[in-house]
Amino acid sequence: MSKNNDIFRQRRLSDSRWIEKYAIGELDFNDDKASEEKADSHQWAGFNFVSFGSGSSGNCAFLGNENGGILIDAGIDPEHVYRDLNANGINIAKVKGILLTHDHADHIRYAYKIVRENKHMRIYCTPRLMGGLLRHHNVSRRIKDYQVSIFKEIPFFLAGMKITAFDTSHDAIDNMGFCFEAGGQTFVVATDMGIITERASHYMCQANFLMIESNYDRTMLDTGSYPEYLKARVRSEKGHLDNKAAAEFVVANLHDGLKWVFLCHLSNDNNKPEIAIKEMTQALQDAGKTVGDGSFAPEMRERDVQVYALPRYDTSDWFVL
Questions:
Q1: Looking at residue 227, what is its pLDDT?
Q2: Domain map of the chain by residue range?
Q3: What residues contact 318, with CB distance under 8 A and at least 6 apart?
Q4: Closest alpha carbon to 4 in 102, 127, 178
Q5: So what's the pLDDT on residue 38?
Q6: What is d(CA 280, CA 269) in angstroms, rounded to the nearest whole number?
Q7: Residue 308 needs a FRET pair 20 to 30 A away by CA distance; which of 10, 171, 262, 268 works?
């Protein structure tokens, strides 16, 4: 954690009111106090989740409920996002903002365009990550006008959810995953990471619904066409997570509350959805779990854990969890 973030964290620990006063402006923090109440409310009907694309070509997902929610990353053409949200009854006016995981182009490409077209929305990221965005030559400096500063491991409330950012290991600026809590359920997003750090593991182990990177198959990468320097980058601790490592983590931290595993950011050149799904499914079955395919078919609904690979270019199924 950076020195500045450490200072903010200490202030938060010493005064629980500090974040409401300083870390996030009153206009943007919490929607209003109702968000905090909704996060613990029995009225929360379940997470609504959809991915509009997942991989190095672009990443963006929606998480919330039928009343609205947030976008996670903004690397997909907004027209695609708006169309598929509308098809499922969510107008973009109900989306409160964009949470960014890091500053690589496939995650931030359309962030400014989306908030410029929807001025009620804000971009939620750390000050350091915003600094990384401002160093991109193709990102407008005016994106800063839409920022709401958040800080790792300091929870905030938005769109009826309690949200906590946590550190992840990747070769970008101030990388993070997100832990979402509402209605007694936890959804965790952990993408673009070479290893699963202790702090990332802390949050991922709490998930009822886990979106975890399963980027590459080791054999495909080793024997594939990538130049050696790029293979080394992908394999590194600040690169990407392979199928086997993702499966090993999930099995090593199994708990009865884990119901869904969404495999994300699959490589186009070094992986296939069927390979990633097979690796995760086999590991779970070897651990004694019954595994469904996420189809909601009657014979699948009662399985212990559902495994679903998020499509690279297309919108996924719409999940009500």
A1: 97
A2: 3-320
A3: 48, 49, 50, 88
A4: 127
A5: 60
A6: 19
A7: 171
